[in-house]
């Protein structure tokens, strides 16, 4: 079963995203910030998909993404930024750093299914 890592400091957002992504047929792992996410990718098989928040304590999502993309196999996961940041400069920075897609919170199952399909991830939705 493919793995999706959900990285967000909000347990509510992680719970909502988990329910949606599990419907898509993914096993879900969670991280509360970029540091936890780096710990995860360093100690587990690389996930196929990562939903990533921007603003988090300890390590921002963009910093995690930049570190991830430098790792062996770090270019493999499809990364979808999922955030309230709507500044064009930040969106451009995320895409330049290696994000595959960008969605705004709040999101729903249809939006996530569309973005997964756009980046080539399978979805049962």
Automatic annotation (TrEMBL):
The keyword Phosphoprotein applies. Residues 3-120 form the Response regulatory domain. GO terms for biological process: phosphorelay signal transduction system. PROSITE patterns: RESPONSE_REGULATORY. Keywords: Phosphoprotein. The modification 4-aspartylphosphate is found at residue 53. Pfam families: Response_reg (PF00072). Coiled coil: none annotated. SUPFAM superfamilies: CheY-like. It comes from the Bacteria. This is Two-component system, chemotaxis family, response regulator CheY.
């Amino acid at each position: 079963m493919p793995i999706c890592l959900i990285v967000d400091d909000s347990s509510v957002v992680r719970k909502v995203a988990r329910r949606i992504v599990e419907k898509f047929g993914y096993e879900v792992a969670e991280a509360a910030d970029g540091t936890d996410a780096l710990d995860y990718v360093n100690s587990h098989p690389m996930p196929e998909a990562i939903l990533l928040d921007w603003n988090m304590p300890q390590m921002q999502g963009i910093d995690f993404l930049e570190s991830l993309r430098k790792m062996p196999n770090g270019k493999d996961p499809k990364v979808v930024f999922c955030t309230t940041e709507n500044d064009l400069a930040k969106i451009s920075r995320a895409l330049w750093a290696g994000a595959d897609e960008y969605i705004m919170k709040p999101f729903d199952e249809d939006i996530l299914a569309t973005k997964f399909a756009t980046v080539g991830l399978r979805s049962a939705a």
